[in-house]
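Suppose you are handed only these lines of text.
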Amino acid sequence: MKIIASAPGNIFLFGEHASVYGYPAIIASVDRRTTVELTGILGNNISLHSELGTIEAELKDGKLINEVISNPELEIIYFFMKQTVENFSVKSGFRVEVKSQIPVGSGMSSSTAVLCSLFGALTTFAGKSIDHQDYFDYIFPIQRQIHGGSASGNEIISSSLGGFNYIKKEGDDVKKAQLGNVELNVVIADSLIKSPTKNTVAFHVPSLIKRRKDDVFAKFDEIGRIVDEAVILLSKERIVKEEEKQLGNLINLNQDVLDKLYLSHPKLDDCIDEARNAGALGAKLSGSGWGGIMFALVKSAYEDKVKSRMEATGAKVFATKTGVEGVIVKIEN
Ligand code: MEV
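From them, the structure of the protein bound to (R)-mevalonate can be written out as follows.
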């Protein structure tokens, strides 16, 4: 039996960081996916193979034991795999191949896409069909660990459900709404500056809050207001030219606030300036900041020009679609 499960990466159109503190965000799935191919095998051996390395272990009396993990970065994936295998009573060995179109550590939620696709493959292998709405509950504790203790979990909702999502997390309560299906052209640049989410989420922002609490929360309030305006635009069936411009302006405003919170990076700033000067409607970083990715909202007529000006900064640039399908699981016998 072979199971092929995939999940998309994401961009934060609006609201990263503030979202960790209960403010709303709008996040969009993008057409770059991680695919997990799980093949059932005879016996009790399990293995996972990815560009980061391999995991090998044995399944004994319903437990995973004797693990050998070639790269410490895979330890958290093993922990999640063990938990899922044991909780869902996987009965026999398997081999997993992970392939990803999402650059690792770039802020496009590569780790979330791995967790969502792995969860889809393992639970299907265990004979269970888990509603995509429920993926959040199983994956959120692990994401919190990956982010160093605090996380909004927004990427899990986006990767599992797909589309555009408005999300506001208040304590354990998650308010979420799928927004419309407005077609947005985005050009994404990977700055190639590796930026583990932990650095800004677990250290920089908490340190800033400790020193300048009122100022930081006033800026989060501003982000909240930007999100509220953007929701109105993105809930429409289609948006007209003037509204597209407004959306671009809101993206720029959100970037200004992130910049004032010292979350940008000179390389991201180069890409953002180049994109805006080449005619993008708006441009901002997405995700953790201090490196990783940024995106530009463009009209298709400007796409090539914006792309080549962003490339001139030395970043890795690609145009992609937003609002794609969430987790997809297929079974091949
Ligand atoms: C990280 O990709 C996005 C942040 O808002 C953290 C989170 O939402 O968990 C910085």
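What can we learn from it? The longest strand covers residues 25-40. The first helix runs from residue 75 to 87.
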